[in-house]
Design brief:
It is built from four helices and two strands. The protein has 140 residues and is an alpha+beta fold. Strands 1-2 form a two-stranded antiparallel sheet. The chain is extended, with a radius of gyration of 19 Å.
Length: 140
């Protein structure tokens, strides 16, 4: 039960796993509620993978129409903002788009955690993408 609307931003400890191998090394893996949306999205994306194998040239299912319309939207966005040279990064941009969309939609569920409101998640996503783009630009 929530007592405050700001409780959706709390990071709550769930459980941890201790790994101790012959007193040589000791690993503590802790799980927090912030990992639940990541696990849900990974399971969702992997379960949607089976739909990709049934796609045909002409859209016959609503799933294929949905993904094709989203692909047209992202292609249009890339053409307007970056140019045609960025078409080789369409899969990366498509995945990032659906990842952030999924996180935002999961945060709207009751008792959902607003993951994109946490600074560490946004910093990790933005810095890793910016460093990757910088390395790719130096190679290019």
């Amino acid at each position: 039960m929530f007592f405050s609307p700001l409780e959706q931003f709390d990071v709550i400890f769930l459980f941890h796993i201790f790994i101790n191998y012959d007193n040589i090394f000791f690993i503590d893996i802790s799980f927090f509620n912030i990992l639940i949306p990541f696990i849900i999205l990974i399971v969702l994306f992997l379960s949607l993978k089976k739909f990709f194998s049934f796609f045909t040239l002409i859209p016959t299912t609503i799933f294929q129409s949905f993904f094709e319309n989203n692909l047209k939207f992202i292609l249009n966005l890339i053409k307007q903002q970056i140019g045609k040279i960025a078409y080789k990064y369409i899969i990366f941009i498509y995945c990032i788009f659906f990842f952030i969309l999924g996180l935002n939609l999961l945060s709207m569920l009751p008792f959902g955690i607003a993951l994109t409101s946490h600074l560490i998640v946004i910093l990790f996503l933005s810095l890793s993408i910016c460093i990757g783009i910088l390395i790719e630009g130096i190679k290019y």
